[in-house]
């Protein structure tokens, strides 16, 4: 205390310096502790990085072989599906390999031959048709299609021939109508590709005044089309028959001789016909005096079948599937 009283300024400076030394020592200790903690964390992260770098991400030989085998199976399945979607048999071969006529007049005579032969087939099978039935080609009853439409119309004729032949083999009671999609000109196809409405084609103009409409529009919700991958052409058959004829037709289409896919089947029951039993004559003896004795025994009534055969109106919509080949813009790795 005496020293402090005699030299207060000197003692105060010593006290302040002592506190400063203590504060600096604490700071150095705190920094050293933080540095050690950071160094330990750095060592831990380096160990984790080294562990991750030591892991080999490449699959084992067993996994690689399994992946390659699965790829080969998938490619084989794709090739098989593409082959099946092209159809098989003489109709499919004709559809792929028969060249379309080059002149509208040639298409006109080709259609006339088809219509005449098909009418004869329907008559031989006792299938009722309209007297002027043209099986979806009323538009060309006097002239052939425009040149732009020849390939599409000729292909439609081939497919409709297959469909109508299959229906006639199923022996329906009556063929009511055959419809197809409207063929499109090159200008219409280009407009659709550009996202614009297709202009009216000459085919639609020629058919606008006809009482027999060849064309129909398939509901896009049931169509199999996938832009850029799957194309399709729609057709529709309307006929009257028993259910058995419909079953025979669907089984024929399921054979996939042509890549035809049934998109919808509409059924409309036909009204039952009146009974064909002969009425009792009003002037017969039984009507005047009651039941007269007969020398011949009355015929027993025919047994009624458990399931009555009824006629229905069927509308079957099908599509011809056409796979769109993807453009080869990138090389496919082979190894």
Q: Which key features would you list for this structure?
A:
single chain; alpha+beta; 10 helices; rod-shaped; transmembrane helix; membrane
Total number of strands: 4
* Structural shape: rod-shaped
Q: Measure the end-to-end span.
A: 94 Å
Run of helices and strands: HHHHHHEHHEHEHE
Structural class: alpha+beta
**Reading side by side through the largest sheet, how are the strands ordered?**
1-2-4-3
Number of helices: 10
Could you tell me the radius of gyration in angstroms?
43 Å
Largest sheet: 4 strands, antiparallel
| Percent in strands | 5-15%
Helical residue percent?
A: 40-55%
- Output mean pLDDT: 78
Uncertain spans: 201-210, 274-292, 330-335
Fold blueprint:
Elements: H1 2-6, H2 8-54, H3 61-84, H4 90-97, H5 104-124, H6 150-169, E1 174-180, H7 186-193, H8 202-207, E2 230-241, H9 243-254, E3 260-269, H10 285-289, E4 312-323
Antiparallel strand pairs: 1-2, 2-4, 3-4
Helix pairs in contact: 5-6, 6-9
Structure description:
There is one protein chain. By secondary structure, the protein is an alpha+beta fold. The chain is built from ten helices and four strands, in the order H-H-H-H-H-H-E-H-H-E-H-E-H-E. It has helices spanning 2-6, 8-54, 61-84, 90-97, 104-124, 150-169, 186-193, 202-207, 243-254, 285-289, and strands at 174-180, 230-241, 260-269, 312-323. The longest helix has 47 residues, at 8-54.
